[in-house]
Structures are given as structure tokens and as C-alpha cells.
């Protein structure tokens, strides 16, 4: 496992950042740009995924980090639901929906495994260093292990 000293080093945060950026640019085009409520909601929720990872990382202890990772996971679920609304309103193609949904789902799996790893960690204060579980990135190879 790699030692993580900054939230920007977490692969899950990096993927969340990419998804948030992709969603932002998607919502600036076509009919999506005029659906202000959905546009704002999905942008807020996708940004919240990465923001809660970052905020939790700097909290004083492991329990708070786990709590914020849970918030991040919830925001990911919101994004997936909002992607359905975007698909139903013809703001995105099925291919675009599938790609963003899969990446957001992967973030959720990565968060799940990071939480599991933190729950087992003997380190209580996360301002020290955190281990990022390698298994988080193998979930797609073992879908029956995913939450």
C-alpha cells in the first residue's frame, strides 16, 4: 500500500475530480445548459464527491474521515440518479450516460474499500499518514465483492 500524505494523492479523489470536470463541461452544452435546476444539482453533487474526500482527509481523526467518505459516497449516488434524469430529458446520449455512470460507480466502489481499510487501520489520527488500499482499484475484476 502506498502512503498518502495529501488528499490530492488519493486515486479516488483524482477520479472524482475528472468526473466533476467532465460533468461541468457537459452541462455547458446544448439543452443541458438551459436546464438550470438539474445543471446546478449535478454540478454541486459531482463537486461534493471530491470536496468531501478532501475535507474528511484533513479532519482530526479516522472516524471523521470515514464520515466524510460516506458523505462523498452519498453524493456519488446523487450524481447517478441525476444522470438518469439527464438521460430521460435527452440531455445526454446513452453512451455518455453509461460512461459517466460507470466512472461514478467506480468511485463509489473505491470509497467503499477505502472506508473498509480505514475501519481496520490501527492509526486513529489521519493527519499523520493514510494507506490507500490497492483492492479499491480491483473491484471491477470482482464485482461480487462490491457493496
UniProtKB/TrEMBL annotation:
SUPFAM superfamilies on file: IVS-encoded protein-like
One protein family per Pfam? 23S_rRNA_IVP
Q: Per its UniProt record, what NCBIfam families does this chain match?
A: four helix bundle protein (TIGR02436)
Q: Kindly give the PANTHER family that the UniProt entry links to this protein.
A: FOUR HELIX BUNDLE PROTEIN
Name recorded for this polypeptide: 30S ribosomal protein S23
Amino acid at each position: 500500500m502506498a502512503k498518502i500524505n495529501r488528499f490530492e494523492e488519493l486515486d479516488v479523489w483524482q477520479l472524482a475530480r475528472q468526473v466533476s470536470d467532465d460533468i461541468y463541461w457537459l452541462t455547458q452544452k446544448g439543452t443541458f445548459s438551459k436546464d438550470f435546476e438539474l445543471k446546478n444539482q449535478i454540478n454541486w453533487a459531482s463537486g461534493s464527491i471530491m470536496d468531501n474526500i478532501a475535507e474528511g482527509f484533513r479532519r482530526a481523526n479516522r472516524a471523521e474521515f470515514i464520515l466524510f467518505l460516506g458523505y462523498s459516497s452519498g453524493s456519488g449516488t446523487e450524481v447517478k440518479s441525476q444522470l438518469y434524469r439527464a438521460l430521460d430529458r435527452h440531455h445526454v446520449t446513452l453512451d455518455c450516460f453509461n460512461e459517466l455512470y460507470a466512472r461514478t460507480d467506480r468511485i463509489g466502489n473505491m470509497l467503499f474499500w477505502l472506508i473498509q481499510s480505514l475501519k481496520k487501520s490501527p492509526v486513529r489520527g489521519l493527519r499523520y499518514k493514510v494507506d490507500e488500499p490497492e483492492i479499491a482499484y480491483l473491484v471491477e475484476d470482482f464485482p461480487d465483492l462490491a457493496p
